[in-house]
Structure prediction request, 403 residues.
Amino acid sequence: MPSLVPSRASRPSDDPIFALNREANARKAKGEAIVNATVGALLDDDGALSVLPSAARAVREVPEAEWAAYAPIAGTPDFLRAVCDDLFATGGVDPSLRAAACASATPGGTGALRHALANYLEPGQKLLTTSHYWGPYQTLADENARGVDTFRMFDDAGDLDVGALDAALGAQLASQGRALLFLNDPCHNPTGFSMSMDEWASVAEVLDRRGSQGPVTLLSDMAYYAYAGREPRAFMRHLAPLLGKIGLLFAWSASKSFTHYGLRVGALVACEPDADARARTEAALAYASRGTWSNCNRGGLGAVTRLLTDPTVRDSCVAERESLKAVLAARVTAFNGAARGRLRYPRYDGGFFVTVFADDAQERAARMREMGVFVVPGKGTLRVALCGVAESDVPRLVDALAQ
Ligand code: PLP
Prediction:
């Protein structure tokens, strides 16, 4: 007799991206010249994981007892303060956001997305996001008995389709009485698109208007914010006026910013100007943590707190990250140089990924695989993880994509 409940009995057995990565690595190990543009971790030009030395040192220097002990359910207060300061206390952000902020530690940004879904939508309701989106949004929604709705991401000029967002928000407010919008910016995964400040201004205008019709919450998924080409907090000037009118959430993650993907450190930050509502938010998030992973790993929280607050370590991290950003920027420039006019893809000026549009995406990816070039096919798209491709391999990658 099968013991799994029917709704869980036919889950896919393997994440397709990790399966492709495994095949690419196995063929490489046998001596084939492989270009592996599948996995979202920053690799150096020799294919080794790029690790910020200062971050690695801070992790090593965490005392044993810190690794061994439980953390408070919501996370250590120092960590929560450091994350809120990191988001709002620099970059000219309006101080009203910092004053209204509360946070809960989560295992990576993924945990923050999970808590947003569970606390800002009822079971059966759907989050709203762009038509191109990071696949685990759907997994997280499934796992939490929620769904995913999308709006067309790009208009005919290749800009964010704010009209489509407006219509979709209106439809959601009519059908489910509330809306939770996930926007992954800057350096959107999987397209590489970063919204302009004009686009943020238009989005804010829509949120302001729709927020008067029912509860609307914006979650800014900031997984890649440390790799933005511009000041990554600049968009917050459009959010500050929305404080108290709509819900403002931020999914913060140490995974990419500090190149410690496996440390599993992140936070969900919520901005609530009303002290009572803020206390209820903190309680709801802590309760959700208790009911899922209990608490996060204290050693990881300690290491990341130090990375954010110790001026010497923080400055070293910034400098080391700048050199990683330069490596990535060289790949992006090489890609744009080789691909412009040959491939269809969105505005792309930085970030771990870019998406190439192709009607025959599945067949094209299969042909590319035969040539030893691995990308991730979607519906009419090929996701290219430039974060894992040496600059010298970019011309071969683009040739394969263009065939
Ligand atoms: N959001 C996006 C768009 C991502 O690509 C990722 C990681 O790949 C995350 C969130 C969360 O990452 P983590 O849970 O490792 O912090």
